[in-house]
Amino acid sequence: MNMNPTHFLPMILASGLLFTSACNGSGSQLPDASQAPEGHPSGHFEIGKGPLSLELSAHGQRDDWSMAITDSRTGRRWVGGHTGDSYRDAYFVELREVDDSSLIVVLQHPRRDILFDCTITISEAATVTFDVVCRSPDEELDFFHFPPRMETELADGALLFADRSPGILLPQHVTHYENQILQTYGNVGALDLPWIGVLDRTDGDGLMIHFDTPENSGAFINSSDQGHVWPRVAWFPSMATFEYPRRASFIFTEGGGHVSMAKLYREMAKEKGKILPLAERAAERPWVEWLLGAPYIWGRSTEDFVHQLRTHGIRRGVIKGRSSTDQMTVMKELGYLTSEYDSYTDIQEGEPGPQTDNIEETALRLRDGSPMRGWQTHHGIQYYTRSHYFARSRAELYVPPILENHPFTARFIDVSAAIQPFEDWAPDRRFGARQDLDYRRDLFRYFTDELRLVLGAEHAKGWTMPLIDYSEGNMSSSFWWESERPGQLLPFLSTDEMSENYLEIGMNMEWRVPLWDLVFHDVVVSTWYWGDSNGYLYNVLPEYSDLKDALNILHGTPPMMWANHLGYGWDRNRDRFVETYRVTGRWHEVVGFDELLDHAYLSEDRLVQRTTFSSGATAHVNLDDSPRTVEIDGESWTLAPYGFHAAGNGISQWRIERDGIRETVVMADRYISLEKEQETSFGPFEGSGLIDLFEVTDGRWHLLTRGHWNINPAEVVDLDTSVPYALVRIDEGGGLVEELTRISPGASFSLPAADSVQLYALLPEIDEHTPLLFPQGGRLAPDQTISISASPDATVRYTLDGSEITADSPVYTEPIRPTESVTLRARAFDGATPISKPVTGSFTPSRVLFRSDIRNTNDDPLRVSLDVTGARTIRILIDDADDGLDFDSAAIGEARFITPNGDAVPLKNLEVIRYSESDSRDHSIDADDITIGGRAMESAVRTHAFADFIFALDRRFETFEAWLGIPDDTEGMGSIRFAIQAEY
Questions:
Q1: In the chain, which stretches have pLDDT less than 70?
Q2: Which residues of 485-496 are buried (b: 16+ CB within 10 A; e: fewer)?
Q3: How far, in Å, CA of 964 to CA of 855, rounded?
Q4: Quick check: 606 and 512 in contact, CB under 8 A?
Q5: For the CA atoms of 170, 176, 181, 185, what is the dihedral angle to 10 degrees?
Q6: What is the largest CA-CA distance in the chain?
Q7: Which pTM was predicted?
Q8: In whole angstroms, what is the distance from residue 316 CA to residue 296 CA?
Q9: Which helix H or strand E contains 433, and what residues bound it?
Q10: What is the pLDDT of residues 161-174, one digit of tens each?
């Protein structure tokens, strides 16, 4: 995942796939017209069909020829020919007419005496196809360019393509891409879709250049005499030759602009079987439906965290990371997708696995026989590139044993979808780009067709459809990769560290278009790159988080968030984390599997935009940092800076300004939210600040509030006002903390005023006598007590051993502090008569045995010796110190437990009953060759922060001894805090 894509650019050159800067290569003999054989080409041919006519003329010299195509619908005449570029422009040898709608042209490579036959055909569908065949398919060549660059008069010309981005409509006067080749399906500086468009933004007319044989192709961008950039077709060799025929098509469009071209390609993709809607896949693999409304969350993967998400209204999610079987089972039961990072491309030396292998045997080989180097970390760790010939076999070896103990519902594969097609020159498996992509497709099919998992990948390309279900990166704009920090997962400390091209081109809202989603919105769920997530820039550009939320609404896509320091952080900026979900999650639930039908500009500067979805839902979004007014269904709305109005299919939400005050509202199924820092009355709410009211499960509703509010339940759709409720304060995981009041059926109530966000729950069918336990059960934090509430006129009696409660049982008078695990039962009495049903909760108390300060690499190891007498379990928590990279390594060395008779039992011999960690790949209960602060450890537990391990002790031991620290091989990186708790 920590990949800087620019590291792959030298590989492209080394493998013979791309030659963008070899214009003056030594030893090249550039023929000119004087070297031509007798019979210089001459002639003029005209063919036509449907609205198109084509004229092709040769004027007696091989470098003097021209082509013109006229579209009778628009009156445009597109003109191309030899531009004087003796390095790229093909020479004409012969022209031959076949019939009224086709020609055959014989061409010569500009630097070699190698000939190509090109058949040019016009169809009724306003399309000209060019079929190119090399007469010497076994002879080595670097590249070949044909058909030529075509130009026309455009009032407001722009290029349209997806360059590792959702799409860009680049004005022709912007020359950033000049003299670059955008490789089809390449990594960066690429075409994610196998086409590029030229269109007039004034009337929407244009030309789409489509690569029908896309694997060894690209668009070369260069300028005309007027300084405007235009694309032309570039063909690359396959295994150093032109071994197979190539085809490109010119498709001319009449109006409709970028939407017309996107939908034109969608129809072509549908004919090739690439449009398999997610809704249909969900019928075969039901977990796919769980993608709806699910933010992608990296950096925490515990059951406790998922309960916290639910408490805050985030009822879906793709949770990245491994935890114990029981935790993952709970997440699955709650409807959250659990996923884990794999890479079958980047490898280091080691046992066959997702990122290790025998490099000598499995590394992809360059033509000179050397293994291809992959990305290199900023610490200098070098990865190699595994041949995709081995990708599926490594997945088959690695994944099934994991699934036996860890009920993952999804899998995330890095690199394979995003990286350019490779060639492997290894003698025993020699293959080119086409076969390379087939091997990758086979890898993807293994996860979906055989393992039946939901499949995610890094930055999908057109060739991956419809094999993957969700893609991380397609929402991110161009040029995020120009800084090493996103690819290496380094937080930005200032805007000076950011790419100017990312800020000025990639995040230029006038040029950005949802091209990818106009084609594939209902086929793959896309979101941001993990180093460009909704909150990744929050500490340096907080307004970009607002902008990205608005773009998620415009595209109808879910957000990407980090629960640690790499984004908002769940513990640091939780309110902002929840806000991103609040305005994007419920919206995605209702439009996430829709086709995106239309995208339109509603203002001259293109900063107010609208999208329309197949369900009838529409989103109006303001991408400006100032308020903008827009007419929606005959009503005037003032959208706040980065504000929105989105409605349809059971949801209505907006962020607007009324009298200069921002107002945010979300109304969806069993969910209503209002934020306004002014006294207001809306629906069931009266007050000011922030309030969310949503159903969690089985009639239980949660309230997330700030400010002061009065609530009228009768105005809440789906809230059962015929039963009594208890209003209680809850903790971050939904546990009961204290009772505030009991609410009679249908009665209004008020919440305490607060300057910070507070959490409450409405518990249904709680009459005046029913006791409530605070908390309801589970693990008790150190020093946490149990309290019981009931009506003041009732007597509450209880037992701690789970036995029946009688009139002789103890009377509850003060909070209970158990010293060991108990099962508490409580019941309300009137004298000796029970007046309520009994309530029960099981509790396990815990104590903090040790908490460290921040430990850094090369610090001396900490020696701990802790009393664990009577402990049922021991819990070890390892926390990142929030000041560096995620995935900091930690080690617990020579850990052992001492029995009362003096026997020592190593930690590695104990049962691990619960664990989770941010990156499971480096986890080892029995690690060798670890030193901490120069001290060698005979054995060690090694893991990453964040980590949470619980080991079973069963009251067998008296003492726990260990060394704690950071392994020396982290080479200076790392900052860790340790905490150790015991449960009794």
A1: 1-40, 881-887, 917-928, 971-973
A2: bbbbbbbbeeee
A3: 9
A4: no
A5: -50
A6: 120
A7: 0.91
A8: 9
A9: helix 433-445
A10: 999 999 999 999 99
